[in-house]
Each structure stands twice: as C-alpha cells, then as structure tokens.
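Researcher: I'm preparing a figure for a lab meeting and need a structural model of a single chain. I don't have an experimental structure, so a prediction will have to do for now. The sequence is pasted below. Please return the structure as tokens so I can convert it later.
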Amino acid sequence: MAERLQTFYDIMRAQGTSRRSFLKFCSLTAAALGLEPAYAGAIAHAMETKPRLPVLWMHGLECTCCSESFIRSGSPLSSDVILKMISLDYDDTLMAAAGADAEKALTEIPAKYPGEYVLAVEGNPPLNEDGMFCITGGRPFVEKLQEVAANAKAVIAWGACASWGCVQAARPNPTQAVPIDKVITDKPIIKVPGCPPIAEVMTGVISYIVTFNQLPELDSRGRPAMFYGQRIHDKCYRRPHFDAGEFVESWDDDGARKGYCLYKMGCKGPTTYNACSTTRWNGGVSFPIQSGHGCIGCSEENFWDNGPFYSRLANIGAAFGIEATANEIGETAAGAALAGVAAHAAASAVKHFTHKPTEGEK
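Model: Understood. Here is the structure written out token by token.
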C-alpha cells in the first residue's frame, strides 16, 4: 500500500521521464479536457503534489464494452491513467489477482480510505429475485454495490448500462435491471453514458477529478457538460446538408455517396448529447455518422425503447436551435416514426464534491 503515497510525477520521474515531457503531458491533458492552456499549470501542480486516487471498478450486468473502450484511450493513454494517475485497486477485468485475493480489496480499501476513494461502476444491478440474476464473488451484485458505495467519495456510472439501464432494462426487463442511481441515493454520481462511452471522455473525466479533486460541471441529467453539453447534430460535419434540405433518401443512393444528412434514415443526432462529432473515436479518426450510419442515440436514456433505429424523428424544428443545451430543452425522448419529441423539465440537481479547489489548484 505504500506506493499509493507516490504522486503521478514521482512515478514519471522514477521511469526516467524528463520535466519537459511531464509538462508536455500536462498541456496535452488540458487540451483533451477542453481547458485553456493556463490550466496546464494546475494539472502539473496536482500531479506533483497529490497522491494517486484510489479507485474500485465494479462490473454488474454488462458486456464489458466500456472497459474495451477505456483501454484504447490515446490522450491520455489508459496505461498512464491506470498505472500513474490512479491506484486501480479492484477491477475484475483488468487486475491480475483473482478469487479471494481480488475480492478482499472491496472491503480493505473502503475501510482504510473512507471518503477518499472513487467507485467506478460498469453495468447495472438487477433487483428481481433479490438480485440473483447477477452474482459476483458468490454474492448478489446489488448487495456488494451498496456496501462498497457506502464510504465512497463519489461514484462514476460508466456507460448506458450504469447510467440509464441500457438493453438489460429495456422492455419487458424480466430481471428488473435498474441504473445505479436507483440503489445509490446518497452519493455524488457522475454519469458518463454511451454504449460504450468514448475512450477519451472516460480518461478525461478521471483526469479532471484527479486534478481538481471535484466532479466536473454536470448538466441536469448528471453528465459532464464538457463532453455532453451539445448535441451531436450541432457539430456534425453533415449539418450544412440538413440546413440545406439535402438528405439521404435510401441507403447507397446518390445522396449517401455525396455525404448528405442522414436525418431521414433515422439519425438521432438532433436529440443525442455526446462528443462523437467532435472528439470522435479511435484517436479522432471517425464516428458512426462519418462511416455512413446514423446515430442511434446510445448515450440517451431508454434508447432501446425509443422506437426503431431507422425511423425518422418528427417535429425537429425551431425548438432545437443549433445552440440549444440539455438544460434548456430538458429530457428528450426520441419516439418512433411520427411520434414526435417530448420535452420534459429537468429534475435532478447537479451534484459536486464538497471540496472547493484552493488558489493553487485553480
């Protein structure tokens, strides 16, 4: 456990990293977070002075796509996050330990570092039959989730499964799978939805928490505004074709070959909040719309139940101005074809750590 007292900078120096390379890393991290260059100094200060953040990463009902995405982050590298920025004390997918040796971390870390560790959750708990549809380490996942969350500083809900319920909670939901905020009600929760989330969004969220010791600004749904503050439609490179009324009418028609807007093919970009059209995937190479397929809205609540993926949204008009935000529109549900878009008032308050950054951290 002594290694946990080391800082990120200590480890980089021990590996022979120069001061110049360290500062370059801090600058690149600030850029990845969408922060001004001046914040590179705050990141450097945090990496030099703060011990690595203890993290327990638990898995419920899910397909592990969030972990698969996370390990492919390029800025910062997931290896830097795992081995230097945080102390990943439990992750049954990535850890070397197994069995009892692995499970004991779930009791040792909360007892040794109460209020100092972050619980990251991938997947969700099923409630039917006392949680027996998801057993990990010989016990219902929902029981272990509540126990480990009790002393956590904050909770990260990775992906659509933990944030909204995803396919496990889709109708008819025989296991009664629920998002984690239905069973964890007394802790700050940051939702990082997507199926899966973008790798750099995941590492960016952790980098922000490590640097400023608080959650980033959240929108009314509990998502980090820096990554979920705008709709995919707003920054999509096909947006000019939407405004010009130029649409793909059928797959592989002339409009598709010319890169016209995919709205008529069911694209949910106008009602989906995510960074896909700006951060993109695979190191910024592409995203689904760029590859010729419309957005299916995987970062939005109940996207599996919001009508066929290839049915076009209706009533996309003046209410969805290019600068509209999630807070202004409220909860947006994309219904089946001609069902319209229902706007509801935002209900959940933004949750933050109680800690406020000191002058040296600002």
